[in-house]
Specification:
mainly beta; two-stranded antiparallel sheet; 1 helix; about 60% strand
Length: about 100
């Protein structure tokens, strides 16, 4: 597998981190395939005020949060790489080359 790419071109547009799903759909059209799942993640937050060396009334709290992950695959044909676009909560977080399309 190829390492993750930071962006790719779709038509004359650059698709990169931070774009919303609606923007990607407008620029690239409908994906060849798409999948959605919910991931649970632990978020650690420090509450309170610590002293000069982190001591004091500071407490680390863990919260479980849910992230909606969408994966869209674009197949641009045999002369171009297929692209996997990963969204978290509706925003592009990663793009990846998947090899030549069909």
């Amino acid at each position: 597998m190829s390492p993750p790419a930071w962006a790719f071109r779709c038509n004359s547009y650059v698709i990169d981190s931070g774009l919303h799903k609606a923007e990607v759909m407008k620029k690239c059209g409908a994906p060849t395939s798409q999948d959605t799942r919910i991931e649970r993640r632990i978020l650690r937050v420090r509450n309170g005020q610590g002293g000069p060396h982190g001591a004091g009334n500071s407490v680390e709290v863990e919260r479980e949060i849910q992230i909606t992950v969408d994966e869209w695959i674009y197949n641009f044909g045999p002369s171009q790489f297929m692209q996997l676009v990963t969204f978290e909560n509706g925003r592009v977080v990663e793009t990846k080359d998947l090899g030549y399309g069909s």
